[in-house]
UniProtKB/TrEMBL annotation, chain A:
SUPFAM superfamilies, sorted: 4Fe-4S ferredoxins
One Pfam match: Fer4_4
Keywords: 4Fe-4S, Iron, Iron-sulfur, Metal-binding
Source organism (scientific name): Raoultibacter timonensis
PANTHER family for this protein: PROTEIN NRFC, PROTEIN NRFC HOMOLOG
Annotated PROSITE patterns: 4FE4S_FER_1 (PS00198), 4FE4S_FER_2 (PS51379)
Domain 4Fe-4S ferredoxin-type positions: 4-34, 50-81, 82-111
Protein name, per record: 4Fe-4S ferredoxin
TrEMBL record, chain C:
Protein name per UniProt: 4Fe-4S Mo/W bis-MGD-type domain-containing protein
Record's signal peptide: 1-33
Keywords, comma-separated and alphabetical: Iron, Iron-sulfur, Metal-binding, Oxidoreductase, Signal
Keyword rRNA processing: no
4Fe-4S Mo/W bis-MGD-type domain residues: 46-101
InterPro entries: Asp_de-COase-like_dom_sf, MopB_CT_Acetylene-hydratase, MoPterin_dinucl-bd_dom, Mopterin_OxRdtase, Mopterin_OxRdtase_4Fe-4S_dom, Prok_Mopterin_Oxidored, TAT_signal
Family: Belongs to the prokaryotic molybdopterin-containing oxidoreductase family.
Keyword Cell membrane carried by entry: no
Amino acid sequence: MTRNIISVDLDSCIGCHSCAVVCKQENGVGLGTYYNKVLTVGPSGTFPDLEMYYLPVACQHCDNPECVSVCPTGASYKREDGVVLVDHSKCIGCQYCVMACPYGVRTYDESRDKGVIEKCTMCAHLIDKGEKPACVKHCPGQARLFGDLDDPESPPSKMRATKKVHKLTDVGNHPGVEYGLDKFTWKGGE
Amino acid sequence: MEVQWPLLVFSVLLGITSGSFIFLAIGELTGKFKEVRFTGALIALVCLAIGGCVSVLHMGHPERALHLLGNLGSGLSKELFAVAVMGIVAIVYLVLARKDYPGASKVFGVIGGVVGIVLSPIAGASYLIAARPAWDSIALPLMYLGAGLALGFTLMAALVLLKGKASEEGGFALKLALAGVVIMAVTTVAYVIWIAIAPYQAPSRSIERLLSGDLALMFWAGVVVVGIVVPVALTVLACVKATRGEGGSGIANPKSLSTYLFVSFACTAVGAVAIRMIMYAVGTSVEQLIYK
Amino acid sequence: MSLKMSRRGFLKASAVASASTLLLGSASAAAFAEDEGAANTSADDVQKIPSACRQCYGRCALFGHVKDGRLVKIEGNPDLFSEGTLCSRAFAIPQEIYNPLRVRYPQKRVGEKGSGQWKRITWEEAYEEAAEQFTRIGEEHGWHTIAHQYGTGRDMLQFQAINKLWLELGSTATFGVGNLCWVGSYFTSQRLYGDETQYTGWDGNNTDCILIWCRQERSRGYYDWLTVKRAQERGAKVICVDPRFTCTASKADLWLPIRPGSDMALVLAFINEIIHSDKCAEDFARFYTNAPFFIDEENTGYQLRQSMLEEGGSDELYPAWDEVHDQLIYWSGDWQNKQELGGPKAFQWLDAEGNIVADAKPALSGSREINGKTYRTSWDILVEHVTPWTIERAAEFCELPEDKIREAIQIYIDASPAACFCRGQKVEFSINTSGISQAFTIMMALAGNFDTKGGQNIGREPATGYDSFMFDVVPNQQGRMGKRRLETAKNIKKLSVCQNTGYQQILVADDATGELQETTQNSGGQVIYGQQGGFGAATTKAMAQGDPFQIYGYWQQTSEPILSIEGGHEIVEGFKNLDFFVNVDIYMTPSGELADIILPAAHPNEVDRVEWAHSGHGYPTSHTYLIRQPFHAPLGEAKDDMDICFEFAKYMDVDMFWKDKYEFFDYMVKGPETLPAELSCASFEDFRERISVTGVQMSDVRGAPKYETGFMRKTSDFRPGFNTMFRGNKMGSVYRFPGTTLPDGTQIPAHPQSDNGKMEMWSEDLLLYGNGPLPLYIEPPITPLARPDLLDEYPYTLITGGRSHAFFHTEYRNSPWMREVHMFPTVDINPATAAEHGIDQDDWVWIETYVDRIRQRANLTEAIKPGMIHVEHDWWFPEREATDDLHGAFDSNCNVLFENNGPYDPAVGTDNYGGLCKIYKAEEGAPDNICMNEEDLRIFLPLSAETIASDGQDDGVSQVTVREGVQS
């Protein structure tokens, strides 16, 4: 099986927002819409004993995506290779998937293809050509790692083997993205 | 999340449909409420139709509704299915109620009641989403059902009284209405308790927002006073009056009692809107990372 | 990769056709407008043009995807130093090129200054009027009454063209800009040893320790972070010195949250510990620096010369004591053989008879009596100076725990000679910028990190050997310096705006006691970039107050001094006084609105350049030239800044020496005859084909530091030692110090020659510029220590040095994507401090100093110490109209919080950019008429090709706005 994912090495991420902006270019994402956003976690503690890391968030391409199970039309679906996508031709814009997503990474975009749901596509149009997603290709910290979690040689698998990895809160959806963080304490739920 | 008005209005109207049909079904089983069958079913159908139309406003591409068969397992598909069945049953029942086919009418009335019982909970069940802890409890669909019972029963009972049936039928209708508002009160409180005890507590979905935070006015005034205390009080009052008569005369004026129930219905509706607005407000997902 | 690219001919041919065919041909007009993704550009009809990014100093390699003559996508080029990575700013390039606020045709102001009323004119009309006006001003008032200015904005080659044009015309004054960044360090290390290693040249690839001083990983040249993190993964330790918990601080192994402005105390402690450790590079000091030289402390204050000891003695002979033969020996600095002490004797120790003492071992330490007078070595003076600067004292000055300082110094010393250092510009914003740069240089040198693996590459080694300075050096070497320029140079003391900046009161820490003492400092005249008179405050005073003389004319190219330096209001006053002002820029800007004529500049990705990374960056980044070539011809009638200079030079009869930019590019990429063939390009066109050239590190090639193998010498004599011929003036035309009288009446005699091949640690040159010969601890003028009287009203320490990852100084406030990730000017404040004033997250607050107040939006963060405030710099609001406070140039512009009356850095004129402030909630909220949300930012979306083609800007640039009631 293939489980493609973009994992993030938070120790390498410098919070520069390159991923968020290149995504707009690559996917023609409108103003106010984000497939991908970079949050700052912290600094926590008291000056000068501080911890801080940046947390880039996008669709987690869950193993058990609630957005797919609630979608009445099958527009939201998970591909064989693990990528969760929205087929805009089937999407009726009911927004139940927006409600079902635990992370608030889907949005109802009226600005572009009016009335459908937008979210990270893992740049499926690029990975299908054998390229890396745009955010991975351009990441200045080389913190974004694309590949197949079932392939032990893939960058995400290698990170998992060498770093402490964390996931966003799992309410049964089993998020796919792994966040590597050794230097500081993970502040999210597991 | 923001209040989803089309969905909110849809769910309230659906509650009326649901409660009305249950009321009519009870009437069919007990051989009562003949006079309101047609009007009641018509109101229920109109509510269903308006609700259905309003809910379509929520969608970006209703014209792609054909795709709705794409995932029958989804809550929304079930909801749609239930609405469709309810609609068909309602239309058939309406026709039957117009003519006089007691047997068929009874069958469809009961079917309507059964569909009515599941309709509201099915609509509420769409919100059973693990990502939004304040929704993820059976208390929510039960609350929807409770509201539907109160709405439908008070409205139908009011109609019954309006027809001048104060005595036997009216008394029974009033008892049903009372049962409806009490169930509504209990299920609403149960849902509020769920908000308080739901997992993944966070300030955005905390009970404090209701009790003393930004939602306090809506909660105390809208839900508790207008939505629970007033309907229950009015319905009890109507029951008391129906039993004891005006000023202890033993004779009650059914029309004035119907006013009590109409007001009770209206207050229940306001309360239902208020609790749903609160439900959306506290319906934040476990981690609101990009969109709030 | 085979890429048949647009050539020079393309530009020439298409310049005519540009507006019509190139732009109208585009079907998908709104590249990066909301309704269009760039994703679906198929390979067939898309040209992929390799080029370089100019959105910050990093110069990352990228490709522009061009479809139907329009740039539709930016992509990283994985083959060069940036490894295919790009930061967010690169993706704003199309938004910058097709921005609604872009000036595409020459404009002449038709309303009052600042009215925003313009009319399109032709280039010829613009050039003719400018030539006439500047000539009139030059002839009536003198050519020095025309100021010129270039920003950090575009590139070094363009700077050369502007500089040459205006120096030849006899202009002297500029607002400086460079003295807020880099120039302080560049100037200083040039004077100490003839080259630089401060921002650049750190060998992160082989290091065991990286000391990062006030530099952010995500401000510019982000690929440096890859070097840093790989070093960390190898086990190298990263030390970050910064008052704030920046991204770099969070990544570092050790963070020293230093008190702003106290850096010198910490560097002196580093030097002190290094000197007293067994790692101290004493042999380097002995044989390659002036450490063994005796100093004439009692009389001239200069390094002792034989001429000062005896009648008829040489001023090219520097006495020292030979430990081997116990005798006085003399270092011959006469490499030019002017006094017959050159040839084989140059850069040798000679005995009293003039014989070479091959095995001499000059004593670093020990006073000697010569002719009845006792002289100390410069080493002993240095050691005496730094020894009181203990870790304990540094801890007190810097408000740091002693153990953290000790740990940092120990890491650095332990890792040396494989320890490297790099710095940011924040240390630069001080009145002691040249002093701190001197201290850093001494620290690196004495730790033994010069030209070592993992240390510092101490020489700028351009890919082909020729860098941008050759633009001016070559004509000067050939005697093609214009008459007016020569005249101006000779009379510079009279013609410089700096002539009245002589003495200033500063607070200097007494070495022995550590107490701050008020001291009078002598200003050296702020010589920058070959002209005297280059700093903002002095030029502002000249324009606004006629002090020391009135400036009447002004040529500004890609700069915005109202925002980037202190005293913005007074600069506006000065601009209003001008008779004639030409602004060359890409956009309408606050100062541009006060100009008479605006000339439309091409975007950096619409022109040809030889490009290279401008800061940070070890090998191979530091040794790479890469192509920056156009994605298409400039929009409208915009022109390359360099071309504008060459064209206007013709109107002004200026001899630019080079026929055009390409002649110089050809020269530059070809390199000297000695350059290995594989590094030499036949021409710029050859270079275009090659995309990049990466040179070599001579220390690798020769297996020894460059100062041992003669590669620090720019004289091609390949003598071991340093190149100091550029002392006094970088361009080789040396203005020696004519002598002066100190405030206390002390006579300082004229300065003798000092180009002697030695690195100076105790610096005679910096002495001449007023710093004193050694780096002094100077307390910034507005701190709790310096101004306790202000503390009651302005209790908080205010700093301004942070850099945003979304902007580059004043740039990109008109980019919808950059503003989307960073919408508002943001002030960092500790939650505890904020709570005292009822300030919540995202509140708009006033930040007020005794000079002025500004508004920014509060970010409550533990990243900053309680009682400290950090505001962002260079904010303006292009969405506001010219008549709306000059595009909102003052609401959030932090530089108006500081006065421009000195003191300044005596050598380079840098002002003080930190102070004391109070902070309180702005009840009125955000400034009026600014973009408040993503929806508002739509006004900045790129124009479609049709819109661009249909708008000839006959009445100026259409202002976009979010002001209520105004249709944008």
